[in-house]
Amino acid sequence: MDESCKVHAVGRSGPSNPMRVGFGGALAAVCEAGRIAMQSAQISPGEISAVCAGLAGAGQPESERKMKRLLSEEFPEKYLRVCTDLDLTLEATGDGPAVVLIAGTGSAAVGRGLSGQIARVGGHGPLLGDEGSAYDIGRRAATAAFREFDRGNADSPLAKKILHELGVANWEAFHLRVYSVPDEVFPRVFPVIANAADEGDSSARVLLQDAASQLADLVDDLVERLQLKSQAFLLVKSGGMLGRCAYFDQLIDERLRRVAPRAKFEGSAIPPAEAAARLALRLLPDLTEEGK
Question: What pTM was computed for the model?
């Protein structure tokens, strides 16, 4: 992005959550995306003035500091900012009161109140939160399947679909995969549950009903904190769980309308990556004057 906010190129790469892929993996992903964008725009690294990285897993101060230090080695003498993916999604909503619900591998909600105050609920990772997320749904589905397996019933149609999706022959092999790479296993179970729910599977629907309620609770808590209960505000849903299952999409909308009846459902005004570039521009001293 140039100083006039015109986007010249976009780069894409792999996962960049340092809590899931490590700081080295996150740094490599960010740098690869930047390299692709610079090559597409036909500019050199020396022409870059500011960099903003919005990463899941960068919410803790220590993670932010470590990621910023690593980026400073890759982008020396540049203005740098590290924030979370939630910050980017909220920035992408524009001005005014807004709440963003993230429903993906993890879950969280972030919002901006009438006076511009920012608050966040959830987003604490799979060990301490992520309720209603794809990871959580996958874990709960696997737990239920193992209970059936322990009872001598390992042949339910839903259980077979889970094993097929993961390419494992039996629940013993599934068990090994879970303890080896849980971040790869549990989120991949969600599409199986989503498809089964659309086909009328009752157990899959119960899982999604619980997830929709948990996600709506995040929004409810945030709306209360921001004192938006009686106010009109923008409500944005984002994440890989959305648009995958008609049954779940209807559920989450119903639950959200109950907790936020005055909210206006819309998408983000700009992509999160573009929001990151705009945040980077704000770091530049010559663009921080009023009106620029």
Answer: 0.77
CB 255 within 8 A of CB 208: no
Report the 3 state secondary structure along the chain.
CCCCCCCCCCCCCCCCCHHHHHHHHHHHHHHHHHHHHHHHHCCCHHHCCEEEEECCCCCCHHHHHHHHHHHHHHCCCCEEEEECHHHHHHHCCCCCCEEEEEECCCEEEEEECCCCCEEEEECCCCCCCCCCCHHHHHHHHHHHHHHHHHCCCCCCHHHHHHHHHHCCCCHHHHHHHHHHCHHHHHHHHHHHHHHHHHCCCHHHHHHHHHHHHHHHHHHHHHHHHCCCCCCCEEEEEECCCCCCCHHHHHHHHHHHHHHCCCEEECCCCCCHHHHHHHHHHCCCHHHCCCCC
CATH topology of domain 94-268: Nucleotidyltransferase; domain 5 (3.30.420)
Per-residue pLDDT tens digits for 169-198? 777 788 888 788 787 788 888 999 999 999
- pLDDT attached to residue 256: 94
Enumerate the domain spans of the chain.
Answer: 18-89+271-287, 94-268
What gap in Å lies between CA 183 and CA 3, rounded to an integer?
39
Q: pLDDT tens digits, residue range 82-107?
A: 998 888 888 888 888 999 998 888 88
Distance, C-alpha 275 to centroid of its chain: 15
